[in-house]
């Protein structure tokens, strides 16, 4: 099973490198073409300066920026295929586990993914991750999605976002120590909206937590799934409580996760 997983991951890596190499080559060819076109238009210093400036801009585009563009394109293609009925996003999930709270439970409750792959319960925080470690080891997934944060912010274990990310990092490292071949992905926290704040004023601080979690993950090398855009586009898909999410939202969430992970 592990050999099959490694073979599949190697195929994904090779495909990814080929796409990146193609885009880099295309960028260079376009840059060279523009450079010589500018030179052909005249020998003035201003034309040459324009060409050199463009080439310099190409040099500054690193592999991550190009990779982000690929993910954005893939996400848009998946979204269109889903809306056109050409894609069932759930078929794209393979060799994974999703951990989290009551929001996460929707993947199971709505029948999208098998229950044994959804390690979640209402009120859960990252402090509950050790309780699922045996189940996680039995699954031995290649990809682990963390979808915590709602209760982490409101329950009061961590007073500041800085304290929280330190605990998050410890939780991730505890998973990696048991499953060193797995990749752990951190979802941004979906904000709450009215009337949720009647239950917990602390939920107003969720954006502040996300602002700290994202750079922390980038610094530590933990893949981060930014859900900001999709939740802003689909605020109508909150339940009436302003906390939980309607069935229709989960497909958009899944697309956003897979665009980052590139499973299968």
From TrEMBL:
Organism of provenance? Blautia hydrogenotrophica (strain DSM 10507 / JCM 14656 / S5a33) (Ruminococcus hydrogenotrophicus)
Looking at the keywords, is Transmembrane present?
Answer: yes
Q: Which domain of life is it from?
A: Bacteria
Q: Which residues form a coiled coil?
A: 56-83
Annotated SGNH hydrolase-type esterase domain ranges read 118-251
Q: Which residues form the signal peptide?
A: none
Q: Does the keyword Nucleus apply?
A: no
Alphabetical UniProt keywords: Coiled coil, Membrane, Transmembrane, Transmembrane helix
Q: Where are the transmembrane segments?
A: 17-38
Pfam families, per database record: Lipase_GDSL_2
| Protein name as catalogued | SGNH hydrolase-type esterase domain-containing protein
């Amino acid at each position: 099973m592990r050999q099959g997983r490694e073979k599949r991951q190697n195929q994904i890596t090779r495909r990814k490198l080929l796409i990146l190499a193609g885009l880099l080559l295309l960028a260079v060819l376009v840059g060279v073409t523009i450079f010589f076109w500018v030179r052909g238009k005249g020998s003035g210093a201003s034309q040459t300066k324009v060409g050199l400036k463009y080439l310099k801009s190409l040099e500054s585009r690193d592999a991550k920026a190009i990779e982000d563009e690929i993910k954005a394109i893939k996400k848009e293609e998946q979204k269109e295929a889903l809306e056109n009925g050409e894609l069932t996003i759930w078929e794209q999930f393979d060799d994974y586990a999703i951990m989290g709270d009551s929001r996460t439970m929707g993947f199971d409750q709505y029948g999208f993914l098998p229950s044994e792959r959804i390690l979640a319960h209402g009120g859960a925080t990252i402090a509950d991750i050790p309780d699922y470690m045996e189940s996680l080891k039995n699954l031995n997934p290649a990809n682990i999605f963390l979808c915590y944060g709602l209760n982490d912010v409101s329950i009061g274990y961590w007073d500041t976002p800085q304290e929280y990310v330190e605990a998050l990092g410890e939780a991730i490292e505890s998973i990696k120590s048991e499953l060193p071949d797995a990749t752990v992905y951190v979802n941004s926290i979906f904000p709450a909206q009215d009337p949720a704040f009647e239950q917990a004023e602390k939920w107003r601080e969720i954006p502040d937590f996300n602002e700290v979690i994202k750079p922390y993950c980038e610094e530590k090398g933990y893949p981060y799934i930014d859900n900001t855009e999709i939740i802003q586009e689909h605020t109508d898909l909150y339940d009436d409580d302003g906390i939980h999410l309607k069935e229709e939202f989960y497909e958009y969430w899944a697309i956003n996760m897979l665009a980052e992970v590139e499973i299968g």
